[in-house]
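Exercise: predict the fold of this chain.
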Amino acid sequence: MHKIFETNPDLKKAYITSDGTPFYQETDAKNHAKTLNDKSVEPIFNEKELQVVDEEELTDADLEMAEFEAAEKLKADQEAERQKAIQYQMELAQALLEFNPETTKYPEALKLFKTLGLEAENEKKDTIFPLLVAAKASAQEGVNTQE
Protein backbone atom coordinates (compact mmCIF):
# COMPACT_ATOMS: atom_id res chain seq x y z
CA MET A 1 0.00 0.00 0.00
CA HIS A 2 1.29 3.45 -0.89
CA LYS A 3 2.13 5.83 1.99
CA ILE A 4 -0.49 8.33 0.83
CA PHE A 5 -3.19 5.85 1.87
CA GLU A 6 -1.51 5.21 5.23
CA THR A 7 -1.70 8.90 6.07
CA ASN A 8 -5.15 9.28 4.44
CA PRO A 9 -6.97 5.98 5.06
CA ASP A 10 -10.31 7.30 3.72
CA LEU A 11 -8.77 8.26 0.39
CA LYS A 12 -9.97 5.88 -2.32
CA LYS A 13 -7.83 6.99 -5.27
CA ALA A 14 -4.72 9.07 -5.89
CA TYR A 15 -2.44 9.83 -8.81
CA ILE A 16 1.28 9.22 -9.03
CA THR A 17 3.75 10.74 -11.45
CA SER A 18 6.73 8.98 -12.98
CA ASP A 19 9.04 10.40 -10.31
CA GLY A 20 6.91 8.78 -7.58
CA THR A 21 5.19 11.93 -6.32
CA PRO A 22 1.59 11.26 -5.24
CA PHE A 23 -1.27 13.73 -5.75
CA TYR A 24 -4.88 13.82 -4.63
CA GLN A 25 -6.08 15.40 -7.88
CA GLU A 26 -5.27 14.17 -11.39
CA THR A 27 -4.91 17.73 -12.68
CA ASP A 28 -2.25 18.47 -10.07
CA ALA A 29 -0.37 15.30 -11.03
CA LYS A 30 -0.56 16.19 -14.73
CA ASN A 31 0.71 19.71 -14.06
CA HIS A 32 3.67 18.32 -12.12
CA ALA A 33 4.30 15.70 -14.83
CA LYS A 34 4.75 18.47 -17.39
CA THR A 35 8.05 19.28 -15.67
CA LEU A 36 9.33 15.69 -16.00
CA ASN A 37 10.90 13.81 -18.89
CA ASP A 38 8.37 10.98 -18.48
CA LYS A 39 5.03 12.77 -18.38
CA SER A 40 2.96 9.74 -17.42
CA VAL A 41 0.43 9.85 -14.59
CA GLU A 42 -1.01 6.65 -13.16
CA PRO A 43 -4.01 6.24 -10.87
CA ILE A 44 -3.40 4.27 -7.69
CA PHE A 45 -6.12 2.81 -5.52
CA ASN A 46 -6.47 2.22 -1.81
CA GLU A 47 -6.27 -1.53 -1.38
CA LYS A 48 -8.77 -1.34 1.49
CA GLU A 49 -11.37 -0.07 -0.95
CA LEU A 50 -10.88 -2.81 -3.51
CA GLN A 51 -13.17 -5.82 -3.39
CA VAL A 52 -11.75 -9.15 -4.40
CA VAL A 53 -14.21 -11.57 -5.90
CA ASP A 54 -13.18 -15.19 -6.04
CA GLU A 55 -14.25 -17.18 -9.06
CA GLU A 56 -16.02 -19.54 -6.68
CA GLU A 57 -18.30 -16.67 -5.62
CA LEU A 58 -19.54 -16.17 -9.18
CA THR A 59 -22.80 -17.87 -10.01
CA ASP A 60 -23.36 -19.85 -13.17
CA ALA A 61 -25.42 -16.94 -14.46
CA ASP A 62 -22.49 -14.57 -13.79
CA LEU A 63 -20.13 -16.85 -15.69
CA GLU A 64 -22.60 -17.21 -18.58
CA MET A 65 -23.01 -13.43 -18.73
CA ALA A 66 -19.24 -12.94 -18.75
CA GLU A 67 -18.89 -15.46 -21.59
CA PHE A 68 -21.75 -13.81 -23.49
CA GLU A 69 -20.21 -10.34 -23.06
CA ALA A 70 -16.82 -11.61 -24.20
CA ALA A 71 -18.39 -13.23 -27.28
CA GLU A 72 -20.35 -10.06 -28.09
CA LYS A 73 -17.22 -7.94 -27.72
CA LEU A 74 -15.33 -10.30 -30.02
CA LYS A 75 -18.14 -10.07 -32.60
CA ALA A 76 -18.17 -6.28 -32.36
CA ASP A 77 -14.39 -6.10 -32.70
CA GLN A 78 -14.46 -8.41 -35.73
CA GLU A 79 -17.22 -6.36 -37.36
CA ALA A 80 -15.28 -3.15 -36.72
CA GLU A 81 -12.21 -4.70 -38.36
CA ARG A 82 -14.33 -5.87 -41.29
CA GLN A 83 -15.81 -2.39 -41.74
CA LYS A 84 -12.34 -0.89 -41.54
CA ALA A 85 -11.09 -3.28 -44.25
CA ILE A 86 -14.09 -2.46 -46.47
CA GLN A 87 -13.48 1.26 -46.00
CA TYR A 88 -9.80 0.81 -46.88
CA GLN A 89 -10.70 -1.13 -50.03
CA MET A 90 -13.20 1.55 -51.04
CA GLU A 91 -10.63 4.29 -50.54
CA LEU A 92 -8.09 2.30 -52.54
CA ALA A 93 -10.58 1.73 -55.35
CA GLN A 94 -11.46 5.43 -55.34
CA ALA A 95 -7.78 6.38 -55.52
CA LEU A 96 -7.32 4.03 -58.46
CA LEU A 97 -10.37 5.43 -60.26
CA GLU A 98 -9.08 8.97 -59.70
CA PHE A 99 -5.67 8.07 -61.12
CA ASN A 100 -5.00 10.12 -64.24
CA PRO A 101 -1.62 9.63 -65.93
CA GLU A 102 -1.80 13.22 -67.20
CA THR A 103 -2.28 14.89 -63.82
CA THR A 104 -1.15 12.45 -61.12
CA LYS A 105 2.26 13.25 -59.74
CA TYR A 106 4.87 10.51 -59.62
CA PRO A 107 5.07 10.25 -55.76
CA GLU A 108 1.31 9.69 -55.50
CA ALA A 109 1.39 7.21 -58.37
CA LEU A 110 4.25 5.30 -56.76
CA LYS A 111 2.41 5.17 -53.45
CA LEU A 112 -0.72 3.87 -55.18
CA PHE A 113 1.37 1.35 -57.12
CA LYS A 114 2.90 -0.02 -53.92
CA THR A 115 -0.38 0.03 -52.01
CA LEU A 116 -2.06 -1.99 -54.73
CA GLY A 117 0.75 -4.55 -54.45
CA LEU A 118 1.64 -4.23 -58.10
CA GLU A 119 5.06 -5.46 -59.18
CA ALA A 120 7.38 -4.43 -61.99
CA GLU A 121 11.05 -4.74 -62.94
CA ASN A 122 11.56 -1.16 -61.66
CA GLU A 123 9.63 1.74 -60.16
CA LYS A 124 10.28 4.27 -62.89
CA LYS A 125 7.43 6.46 -64.07
CA ASP A 126 7.50 4.96 -67.56
CA THR A 127 7.08 1.52 -66.01
CA ILE A 128 4.46 2.05 -63.30
CA PHE A 129 2.11 4.50 -65.02
CA PRO A 130 1.07 2.01 -67.75
CA LEU A 131 0.54 -0.66 -65.09
CA LEU A 132 -1.67 1.71 -63.10
CA VAL A 133 -3.64 2.57 -66.24
CA ALA A 134 -4.15 -1.17 -66.85
CA ALA A 135 -5.18 -1.73 -63.22
CA LYS A 136 -7.65 1.15 -63.47
CA ALA A 137 -9.10 -0.25 -66.70
CA SER A 138 -9.40 -3.69 -65.12
CA ALA A 139 -11.14 -2.24 -62.06
CA GLN A 140 -13.54 -0.25 -64.23
CA GLU A 141 -14.26 -3.35 -66.31
CA GLY A 142 -15.06 -5.26 -63.14
CA VAL A 143 -17.45 -2.54 -62.03
CA ASN A 144 -19.15 -2.49 -65.45
CA THR A 145 -19.66 -6.26 -65.48
CA GLN A 146 -21.27 -6.14 -62.02
CA GLU A 147 -23.90 -3.62 -63.08
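Check your answer against the key: The chain has a mean pLDDT of 87.
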